[in-house]
Specification:
With 154 residues, the protein is an alpha/beta fold. It has helices at residues 10-14, 33-44, 58-67, 79-90, 107-110, 124-129, 142-151, and strands at 5-8, 20-21, 27-28, 48-52, 71-73, 97-100, 115-118, 132-133.
Amino acid sequence: MKIKLILLDIDGVLTDGKVTIDSKGNEYKTIDFKDIDAVFEFKCLGYKVGLITGEGTRITQYFKERFKPDFFYNACKDKPKAMKDILEKTGYSTEQVCYMGDGKHDIPIMKLIDFTACPANAIPEVKEIVKIKLQANGGDGCIWELLKYLEQGK
């Protein structure tokens, strides 16, 4: 069955997972322009895109405004529940979803979805259960790599 929905974690996938904090307490994160382009390209190709993050910061709100995802779950501590909510709203099955994550909080949702991916620098427990282990690190082109993988119809 064809993938129709791309769900992404933010920290460690869309960003490199690192946080820079200045002397005033402002946080900064890094994202690759290839990944920005990939999110928009997914949308242009007709995929629905969702962001599910455990963080609830100004930066995650910025991503909501920048990408205008079809689904956005901020400060989400129950990612499987968020996914089930999305499936109810769309009528999609778990076979039509691709989820990319990198950390321990992504494992519960990954166990419910057939098509999963992780960046090269994901934790070992995630790498053990995903379908696709990408070559690029989080925040360094991994979403672009996933896009190219899906375009090849693998």
